[in-house]
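F.,

This is the one I mentioned.
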């Protein structure tokens, strides 16, 4: 079993907070992570999609009182939104009795309803952690294994499938189930075929500026509908909306966000890509790899880091601008080449912002200078540098 880097992070959060919300798409590994945590302490686990487990908590105050000395893990919490008010009362009661940490671990597909309900009922009582798919750092340093991760994506069942065809079938079924069952259960009233076409269009324009008008025309819907579809996919942690940096008042900056399908394997399934050979010859290859690197770097950055891109009308551009705690900025260019070169736009952007560190992340392992202030480094070294800050 692959050891998730989130395990010690979430464990530490439980040691500091009364309740922790572990959010992420279905099948991303939330339950496996929670059960691993349960082995380290007294805990009880309930799957709220299971009829028998739901019956156990029909009288939640009584059930939770019986287990008030344990970590209570509630999986798929969006299936029982009425529990949030009960949890609030239990947390407050526990605090009065001196218990301030490790009371609840709440798992859920990151639905808008889940976030709204918990924000209303558990404000000031819960800390969140977003669990993404497997990252390159978690699957090891082998380039062959990382290429498999790039092609298949990081959902564990897709990544560990016996061959590429089985992996592709799993991802196709995942997309179909999300569109036809899971999203409607979350209250979204969008035709499955319309949302699939929208999702596919985002995959085709991976890493491009979001153009609501163009997408609305293609889908024959309003611009407001397109914006709502994007909000939904972002809330479900299936799509990343990377916002532009906007604090440089003296420059004409791009105002539209860039959009990525967060899991490369889902993007490739939406594009009909099954093999690595198909992928490396596809026009989306460079931006697909860029998206994979962006997810890995954001996941590795310290909590409290903000992520943007930077682009001006004059051509200055940074693929990923990370602002770490303490207002230290990393300007990161991403190249899928073993002989990376720095574009003029990156030099211009670094002159504008004067970041704490400027680097080009590329597929190799050797670290070397590209100019006086810019160096090339592999992903592992970039991650190690971020974790030292």
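My design for it:
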């Amino acid at each position: 079993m692959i050891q998730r880097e989130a395990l010690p992070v979430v464990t530490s959060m439980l040691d500091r907070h009364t309740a922790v919300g572990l959010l992420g798409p279905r099948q991303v590994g939330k339950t496996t992570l929670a059960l691993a945590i349960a082995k380290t302490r007294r805990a009880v686990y309930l799957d709220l999609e299971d009829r028998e487990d739901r019956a156990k908590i029909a009288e939640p105050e009584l059930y939770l009182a019986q287990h008030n000395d344990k970590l209570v893990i509630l999986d798929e919490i969006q299936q029982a939104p009425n529990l949030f008010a009960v949890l609030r009362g239990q947390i407050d009661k526990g605090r009065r009795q001196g218990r301030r940490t490790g009371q609840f671990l709440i798992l859920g597909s990151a639905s808008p309803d889940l976030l709204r309900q918990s924000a209303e009922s558990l404000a000031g009582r819960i800390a969140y952690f977003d669990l993404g798919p497997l990252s390159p750092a978690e699957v090891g340093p082998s380039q062959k294994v990382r290429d498999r991760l790039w092609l298949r994506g990081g959902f564990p069942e897709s990544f560990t499938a016996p061959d590429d065809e089985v992996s592709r079938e799993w991802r196709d079924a995942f997309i179909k189930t999300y569109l036809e069952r899971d999203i409607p259960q979350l209250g979204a009233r969008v035709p499955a075929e319309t949302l699939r076409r929208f999702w596919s269009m985002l995959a085709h324009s991976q890493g491009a500026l979001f153009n609501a008008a163009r997408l609305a025309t293609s889908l024959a819907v309003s611009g407001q509908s397109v914006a709502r579809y994007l909000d939904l996919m972002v809330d479900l942690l299936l799509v990343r909306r990377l916002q532009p940096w906007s604090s440089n008042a003296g420059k004409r900056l791009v105002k539209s966000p860039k959009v990525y399908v967060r899991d490369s394997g889902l993007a490739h399934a939406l594009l009909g890509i099954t093999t690595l050979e198909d992928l490396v010859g596809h026009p989306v290859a460079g931006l697909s790899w860029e998206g994979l690197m962006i997810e890995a770097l954001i996941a590795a950055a310290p909590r409290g880091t903000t992520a943007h891109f930077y682009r001006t009308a004059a051509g200055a551009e940074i693929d990923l601008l990370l602002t770490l705690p303490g207002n230290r900025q990393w300007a990161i260019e991403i190249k899928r080449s073993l002989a990376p070169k720095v574009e003029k736009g990156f030099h211009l952007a670094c002159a504008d912002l004067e970041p704490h560190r400027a680097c080009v992340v590329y597929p190799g392992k050797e670290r070397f200078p590209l100019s006086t202030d810019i160096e090339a480094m592999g992903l592992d070294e970039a991650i190690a540098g971020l974790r030292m800050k």
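The radius of gyration is 22 Å.

Talk soon.
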